[in-house]
Amino acid sequence: MDSLERSTIRSEQKSRKFLKSLIRKQPRDLLLVIGTGVSAAVAPGIPALCSWRSCIEAVIEAAEQLEVLHPGDVAEFRKKVIKDRDLLVVAHDLIRKMSPRTGDTKPNFFQDCLMEVFDNLEQHIQNPVVLQSILRLMERGTMVLTTNYDNLLEIFGHQQGKPMESLDLKDKDKVLQWARGHIKYGVLHIHGLYTDPCGMVLDPSGYKDVTQDPEVMEVLQNLYQTKSFLFLGCGETLRDQIFQALFLYTLKNKVDLEHYMLVLKENEDHFFKLQADMLLHGIKVVSYGDCFKQFPEYVQDLTAQICKHRSPGTSCVDSAKRKLGENGTDSPKRIKQSDNGIPTIE
C-alpha cells in the first residue's frame, strides 16, 4: 500500500462515525472473537490464513505433498472445496479422513499438515496494526478467544514482552481461570492450536467432556450474557458448531444481548439483510468499509475510541495501583464487583 493510498484510507476512517453504544464500552466489558480476517490482515503472505477455503486448500496441498492422503481423496476434496457451500462440513470430513478409523482424532495427520502450512509464522507478520490494537485492549481487561489454529497474536505479544498464554478447551482448570478473568494475556483457541497434537477439534463431540460439564458451561455461557462480544474478521463463526455448542444452544432471549460484528460491506443489499438477521441474535453488524485494506485502520481507530474513555470513578491512584499489579508488585487476581454486577479483575 503506497503512502497516498494509506493517507486516503486514513482520512476516510477519521470521518467515519462509530456506534456510541460500542465505543462507550469499557475494555473489561468486551470479549474479542478473532477470525481468519485478522490473520489475513496481519500475514497476507500466507494464503492459508485468508479464509477457511484457503486454509482447507492449503491443507489438502500439504497432505498431497506429504503423501498422507490418497490421490483419489485429494481430487475429491478439491472438488468439495469448490462446490460445497458449507466449508465447515468439508473441514470436518477432511480431519476425519486423516484420523484413525476408531473415530478418535488423535493421533492424526491433519496436525502435521497444519504445521507444514503454518511453518515460521513469525517471519510473515507484515502488518501488526490489528495485533497492536488487540494487545492494547487486553492490557485494559478485554478477553480474547479465537477460532483460528494459528498463534500470531501470541507470537507478536511475546515480541512485545507480554506474558501471552495459548489455551484450549481440553484444560478445564485453565479455561475456568481464563473465563473468570484470571489470565490477562490468555487466548482461548476453541478449535485448538496447530502446535498441539492433542488439542485440535472441529466437531463438538470432541469436546463432550466440556459441553457436559455444568461448571465449565455455566461460566462460558455467562460470558456471552455479561460481556459484549466483538467479532473481528469473522465470517462463519456463528455457524461454527463448537461456538454454537459453547455459547448459543441453551441461551434464551438472544435479542436482549448486545454484541458487535465488524464486516466488509461489498454489497449493500446483503449488508443490510445481514444487519437485520443478526439483530435477532443480539448482534449489531457494523461495516468497517468496502475494502479489506480498511480493516486494520478501522480496528486501530475503534480501539483508540474505546480506550480514551476512562472507567467511571477511576482515579489516578486507581490507575497507578493497576499499573503496579501489571508489574507484579500487586496481586493480579484482586476481584472487584462493578456497578452492573459483573466481577472484574483489577
TrEMBL record:
The record's GO molecular-function terms, alphabetically, read: identical protein binding
Q: Name one Pfam family in it.
A: SIR2_2
Q: Where is this region: Disordered?
A: 310-346
Give the superkingdom in one word.
Eukaryota
What residue spans carry the Basic and acidic residues bias annotation? 319-337
UniProt keyword terms in alphabetical order: Acetylation, Phosphoprotein
Keyword Acetylation part of the UniProt annotation? yes
Q: Does the keyword Phosphoprotein apply?
A: yes
Q: Which family does it belong to?
A: Belongs to the FAM118 family.
- What name is this protein filed under? Family with sequence similarity 118 member A
